[in-house]
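Notes from the 1:1 (GR / supervisor)

We went over the backlog. Supervisor wanted to see one worked example end to end before approving the batch request, so GR pasted a single chain during the call. The sequence is below; no edits were made to it. Supervisor asked that the structure be written out right there so they could see what the output format looks like.
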Amino acid sequence: MKIKLWLQAFRLRTLPLAFTSIGMGATLAWYEMLFSWPVLIAAAVTTLFLQILSNLANDYGDFHNGADNEQRVGPLRAMQSGSITEKEMKNAIIVFILLSLLSGCGLLYVVFKSQPFSWLPIAFFLLGIASIAAAVKYTAGKNPYGYKGLGDVFVFLFFGWVGVGGTYFLMTREWDWTILLPATTIGLFSAAVLNVNNIRDIEADRSAGKKTLALRLGPVYARWYHVLLIIAGITCMTLFVGIENIEYSWLLCFAFLPVLWNAFKVYSTKESERIDPFLKQMVFSSLTFLLIFILVVSL
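Structure output shown during the call:
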């Protein structure tokens, strides 16, 4: 039975990040009294499929491009260990492309069933196709953007502005530019997760020619960049609650503590082999941040 192997290939510790993105958009819609459970469920399932697709494609791409080599510090990947064959991984990628597409179409049906041929569902369908392409092209295919130092940008856009802003719009059917502030926060925190991964893998990526932003910056400045991502994310959220005059916003101080602690630990840990635990910590710090924000807007 390969169930355990596939669960490892799905990289379960990264999956809460997808729910953080959708959860923030849904919370903002709830704050406007326009929350929808069907939209939340459909969006969460779609994003989960996209996250798994991205992880599988990353496993496949990094293996073929030589980034998953003996210099890599993190957990042994599925194809790197030989536990999952190339054919099996390709088939799994195809399955999750189809699942993402079907789930995304279901989401659009839930939202736009009364106007299926207007420009809005078409625009969101194209955005969904772009999300699938971005999930695959991170490290797989020709000219993967992850090998050019653009992974942080795409993670920021799709986990931040697209994930948060898209969920908010699909629930409310309206737009408020201030939503970009919390969306930016989640995007920056998500980029911080990727940055921890890339700091850990600097030497392996160097040998494979994978020029991540962390590699381009170098170990020292990549850690400063991590701190900057966290501080900028906190600043954006502070501006948002100030603009919206949200009561009990002082409670967000408790939400900021885990991400600030992560920034300190990543900055102060100089050995790459000791930095891997802070990836999972950053994922769950982001989720904790969301849960406390939900509490704040509920009071």
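Supervisor's comment: The mean pLDDT is 91.
Batch request approved.
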